[in-house]
Amino acid sequence: MPFDSLKAREQPKENKIDFGSDVRKILDKLYDDNIKPKYAIALVIKALAPFFLIFIEKKYISSQDAYRVLENLMACMEIEDKEQSIAAVIKALRPILQISTKYPKEFEEMRSKIGNTQEGYIELNRLVTYEKNGKVISLHHSLAKTIGPNRKMYEDAMAKLAQIINDDPEVEVIEAVSYIVPKTPTLFTKYGFEIKELNEKDEEGRDIALAFILREEFLKRFLKNND
User: What is the pLDDT, as a whole number, of residue 29?
Assistant: First the structure.
């Protein structure tokens, strides 16, 4: 996922996991793209499959209840009306929504790990991940509403990444693309990143920009015991 805010306001309502709202947004987007309900719900079931295995293993839900949720979701495939279909899906997912409410931190961490694995991102810690494309390292921010802004974890991730880059002579640039770059550029410039406007928007219609830093400057700032 994009490199989200490390300086978000710490408000209780923002620390809640609203899984139902996330599912609704996903279905809304799929239906708006003219994906038929049965195919959209099939995608939801596919996305949830890894969660069910973890939920059962951790005894958050019984295998019987998990199977019942899947049965109810499959029944929703026959509903053609968009709003009725979404309402039925949310109702079918009620046991999962209850888990997300009862175990918000654990649930978010599971979502984060599964999402990062699916995207092919490498975790530096709970907060920051990255991917390498040739000579470029792209930074990403994991789901972290239950964690909130954590400067120490960010700096810890950068120190770990510095060691990785130090051992990989191919890397030349470290970058991050996000709405938070133009919103709070000093969050990046403080650590030596340069800012470049992209004149683009993210999926939520927010302006995004590129923050980047060259290898030598990054290592100078973050590599421990670097003389």
Answer: 83
